[in-house]
Amino acid sequence: MTKMIRASDGITRRSLLLTLAPMTEQQKGRRAIEVGPTGKTVAVNLARLRDRRGLTTRQLSGALERVGRPIPPSGITRMEKGERVVTADDLAALAAVLGVSPSALLVPLADEPTASVDVTGAGEVPAVDAWQWANGQRPLKLTPGKEQTELLEHQLFGMPQWLRSYRTELHERVSADFPGQIETDPATGLPVIVLRRDPDGGTDG
Asked: Structure pTM?
């Protein structure tokens, strides 16, 4: 039954309508955010990883609550449908609970390294470049003629000094364990073990 409100109640018809009408995102002071390519990738990867872990939305919700980032089962469902924006804190908690790095949620799981994937802000790039970038190994795109400078700046600005030192130490240790079989990946600066074939068709080691 509709309650009749008299003018003496001090409530105008306009203020009553504003009170009863649902507020839009703009009225709440928040700009509606459109889910872009990477947001859609997160939705797909979240559903895939939850399924691989054998978790229901309720179980995943419970795990998130236990680590201090509660998201209701309905919220997880909306994330997987791309209907709810995944914040940075949501992403970190989901990755931690699912036992993966944030890149496993952010980057498409392509079948081939040369497959084209869509990354917000960069457009279509090879999957291998997207994964190496997301894992902190190289810039997402390299400018011809400026590759070395951009690689150095990526390490200088994108990781702490101790991690850069660790990579150098790792290269030295691996080189000592596999003498003559180590090459440096020019894109990442990381050591790569190269299995060289002997004249008889076998491999060294």
From this structure: 0.69
